[in-house]
């Protein structure tokens, strides 16, 4: 009998290729599961097999917005969920709103339809609904899957379901080929229903790592409403640019963070301003009084989800690593190549943090000077041409 208590009794499992994986005390496992590979073992893994090579007779459609050419973790989980319940005769079609430069096959998609005209910076909800409806008409999927988030996908799924008079399930935390489930009664009970037309998947309900790959075929598909994107009935007021320092760390997309290795705080803040990045700090730097408490990142501070996180002089205590676990790209600048932060980082610069900050500030100043010289030269040339004319 297992007497260990679960961390979160309201989320006791994750959907994986092996079924529902139980979560207990920070460890996950299923009966008969294989041992977890050690770091670096992925370099020696054999190529993953194709999920199916049978002629498709049915389709599942996954729609999501891309951010700088990639899908976020929630979107990848949604795509994996559709791939896990697809049978050998079902293809998984991925519809991406925006530019997409990722590997659709590795994410589990058999076909990729990208609509680059729908940029994240453009608000065109009615056109997106029409594009999704056109894709549904083209592929006639049995079900449509979207991430249930607050950044466009959840709204798009609800708008489409209402426009198409389709059945829909939101905040889905459990899914298989026959049913979905969501929490009700203040997350104290599960409501189960048959798989609806539209499934909006909650975050962290599916393990995005798949034991197979999809076909990954990119389909050149032109949406008939391309020209209508700029003539939408919705008026887009654009995006107001603000100083990154005014952003809450939880909302920042680019963060530079200082640790014990940063002694010249003004130089660090100058670099952050130049890069247009929000400022974070480790607990040590905050406790020393170099930064205010609201800048602290970690288990006892803020948890961030930046696309780019640069850590200057931070060793990477486990509490700090918990705070940056959802960051997409982590760059570490540290004298110690074996520091814990280096194991988490996608790129590690082995060097003195303060010297690196100074070098980056000098490079930025040189770039500004060169750009100013070029602008002045162009202006003087224009004046001379005007005088000659």
List the helices and strands and how they pair.
Elements lengths: L12 E4 L2 E6 L2 E3 L28 E8 L7 H13 L4 E8 L13 E5 L9 H15 L3 E5 L5 H12 L3 E8 L3 E6 L4 E6 L3 E4 L15 E2 L35 E5 L6 H11 L2 E4 L1 H5 L20 E5 L5 H6 L5 E6 L5 H5 L2 E4 L2 H36 L1
Parallel strand pairs: 4-5, 4-7, 5-6, 6-12, 7-11, 8-11, 13-14, 13-15, 15-16, 16-17
Antiparallel strand pairs: 1-2, 2-3, 8-9, 9-10
Gist?
With 389 residues, the chain is an alpha/beta fold. Helices cover 26% and strands 23% of the residues.
| Uncertain stretches of 5 or more adjacent residues | 1-8, 23-43, 380-389
Secondary structure category? alpha/beta
Looking at CATH, the homologous superfamily of the largest domain is HUPs
Total helices: the number is 8
Per CATH, the architecture of the largest domain is 3-Layer(aba) Sandwich
What CATH calls the topology of the largest domain is Rossmann fold
Radius of gyration, in angstroms, nearest whole number:
24 Å
Q: What is the global morphology?
A: globular
Distance between the termini: 93 Å
Number of domains as seen in the coordinates: 2
Describe the overall structure.
With 389 residues, this protein is of the alpha/beta class. It folds into two domains: 13-27 and 48-231, Rossmann fold; 244-364, TPP-binding domain (Rossmann fold), CATH 3.40.50.1220. Helix content is 26%, strand content 23%. It contains eight helices and 17 strands. The chain has helices at residues 73-85, 125-139, 153-164, 265-275, 283-287, 318-323, 340-344, 353-388, and strands at residues 13-16, 19-24, 27-29, 58-65, 90-97, 111-115, 143-147, 168-175, 179-184, 189-194, 198-201, 217-218, 254-258, 278-281, 308-312, 329-334, 347-350. A nine-stranded mixed sheet has the order 10-9-8-11-7-4-5-6-12, with helices on both faces. A five-stranded parallel sheet has the order 14-13-15-16-17. Helix 2 (125-139) packs across helix 3. The N and C termini lie far apart (93 Å).
